[in-house]
Amino acid sequence: MTGGPETGTVRSPAAATQRGQAKELRRLALLSAAAGLFAENGFTRVSLEDLGAAAGVSGPAVYRHFPGKQAVLGELLLSVSRDLLDGGLRVVAEAENPMDALKGLIQFQVDFALSNPDVIRVQDRDFGSLSSTDQAEVRSLQRAYVETWVDVLARIHSNADVAGLRVRAHAAFGLINSTPHSVRHHGRKIAVKSARPILEQMALAALTSA
Amino acid sequence: MTGGPETGTVRSPAAATQRGQAKELRRLALLSAAAGLFAENGFTRVSLEDLGAAAGVSGPAVYRHFPGKQAVLGELLLSVSRDLLDGGLRVVAEAENPMDALKGLIQFQVDFALSNPDVIRVQDRDFGSLSSTDQAEVRSLQRAYVETWVDVLARIHSNADVAGLRVRAHAAFGLINSTPHSVRHHGRKIAVKSARPILEQMALAALTSA
DNA sequence: AATTTAGGTTAGTCTTTATTAACTGTGATG
DNA sequence: CATCACAGTTAATAAAGACTAACCTAAATT
Questions:
Q1: Which residues of chain A does B176 touch, with a Cβ-Cβ cutoff of 8 Å?
Q2: What is the pTM of this model?
Q3: pLDDT > 90? residue B152
Q4: C-alpha distances out from residue B37 to A137, B30, B54, B73, Å
Q5: Nearest CA in chain A to B42
Q6: Footprint of strand D on the protein (CB under 7 A)
Q7: How far does the CA of residue B176 sit from the closest CA of chain A (Å)?
Q8: Predicted confidence band of residue B181 (pLDDT cuts 50, 70, 90)
Q9: Closest protein CA to C1' of nucleotide D26, residue
Q10: Dihedral angle, C-alpha B55, B59, B62, B64, nearest 10 °
C-alpha cells in the first residue's frame, strides 16, 4: 500500500505517541537532507536513494512521508516562500515609516539568505522541477513578497514607475542572495558573519540612490 | 564510427568547402539551441533528442559535432567565461582611472547580462553539470574575472580588505545578473531596455557606497 | 567516373532511477 | 494478550535517455 496516505490518521499535528514523534523527526530530517542535497547537486541529480540515505533510511521509505520526490521539493519551496512573505509582511507592519520598513526588509532578507543559503539556492535553481501547481503557488507567494518591497519603495521614490521599482526589487534580491551562490559548498562560516553588514549597506545604497 | 573525431581533418577552421560551412552552421545552431533550451529547462531535463530537434536534426546527429551532451554545455560555458574575462580586461586596460574602469566594468556586465540572459542563467544554474575538468577551467576564468573587479575596487576603496571587496564584487554580479532570473521566459523585450540605466545606477551606488 | 569521407538516419543497447509490490517487525489500541 | 496500523525493507517494474551500431547518401577527392 505504498500509495496510501503518508500522514497520520488525519494529519494529526505531531501526535503525542512515540511513533508520531519519530515520524515527525524523520520527516524533518528528510526535508533538511533534501535542502542540502538539492542545493549541492541539483534536484534532478539527487536520487531517492541518496535522499533516504542522507536521512538514515534507504530508498522507498521516503514514500511513507511524501507522495513522491517532486513533493519533497514542493514542500521545501512552498515553506520558504511562505516564510519570506510572512516575515516581510510582519517587518513592514512593525515599521513606523517607509525608510525603516525598507531597512527592516533588507535586514530580514540578508538574515534569511545568510541563514538558509541552501533553500535560497534551491529556490532559484530548481523552481522548474516543481509540479505546475506548486510552481503557480510559489510564483504567487513570490509575487506577493516582491509587491511588499515595491510598495515600500514606492513610498520612498514617490515619483518612479512601478515597473522600474520591480526591477530594483529583483536586483536587490540578486544582490542579497549572491552569497549562497558565491560561498559555494563546504565550510567557510568565516566570511558569512562579515558579509552581513556589507550586503546590508550595499542593498540600502542601491535601493535609495537617485 | 560514432565515436570518431567530430571535426574536420584537423579542426580545419571553417573549411571553405560547402560541407564545412554547413557543418559550422549546424554547430552554431546547436550551441544556440542549447543555450535556449538549457536556460529554459535546465541541462538535465533537456534530452539530446530535444537538442537535435531544436537545431533541425534529430537525436544522435549531435555526436557528429560534439563528443557528448556534457561537451555541449562545456563549450557554451567556457566561451562565456572567456568572453567575460576578455571583455573585462579590455575595459580596464582602456580606462584612464579606477572610477572610469569601474563604470566601464559595470556597463560591460550589464550589457552582457541583458544581451545574453540565457547563458548567464545556464552558467550559474548548470555549472555543476560540467565535467570536473571543465568545472575547474570555468572556475579559473571566473576567478580571474572577479579579481579584475576586485583590483579596480581596491584602487577605489584603498583601505578595505580584499575579502570584503570580493563579497562586494559577487554581490554586484548578483544584482546585475538578476534580470535573467526575474524576466523569466517569453517575450518582454520591453523592460530590458529600461532596465539598463537602473541596473547601472544601482550597481555603481552599491559599489561606491561608504 | 570511381572511390572515399562524413553528416544524417533509424534501431538497438544499457543504465539509471522513480515508483510499486510483497513482506516484516514492532508500537498503538482494545 | 490479540489485533491492527504502519514505518521500513528488499525485490520487481518501467520509463527515460545517453550513447553505439549499421546503414545510406551525397559531397570531396582522385
A1: 171, 174
A2: 0.92
A3: yes
A4: 24, 10, 8, 11
A5: A128
A6: A 2, 6, 8-9, 19, 22-23, 26, 52, 57-61, 64-65; B 1-3, 17-20, 45-49, 59-60, 63, 68-70
A7: 7
A8: confident
A9: B19
A10: -120
What is the number of other CB atoms lying within 10 angstroms of the CB of residue A194?
A: 12
Residue B165's pLDDT band, with cuts at 50, 70 and 90, is very high
**Grid cell for residue B83:** 568572453
| Chain A residues with beta carbon closer than 8 angstroms to that of B149 | none
How far does CA A153 lie from the centroid of its chain? 22
Q: Which three cell numbers stand for residue A22?
A: 519519530
Q: Which three cell numbers stand for residue A98?
A: 517607509
Distance from CA of B150 to the nearest CA of A (A): 14
pLDDT in tens, B48-100: 999 999 999 989 999 999 999 999 999 999 999 999 999 999 999 999 999 99
Joined grid coordinates for residue B17: 568547402
Mean pLDDT for chain A overall: 91
Q: Which of A149, A200, A139 is nearest to B182 (CA)?
A: A139
Binary contact (A172, B177; C-beta < 8 A): no
Rounded to whole angstroms, how far apart are CA atoms B57 and B30?
A: 9
Q: H-helix or E-strand containing A40?
A: helix A18-41
For residue A148, give the DSSP letter.
H
Q: Residue A50 and residue A100: Cα distance in Å, rounded?
A: 45
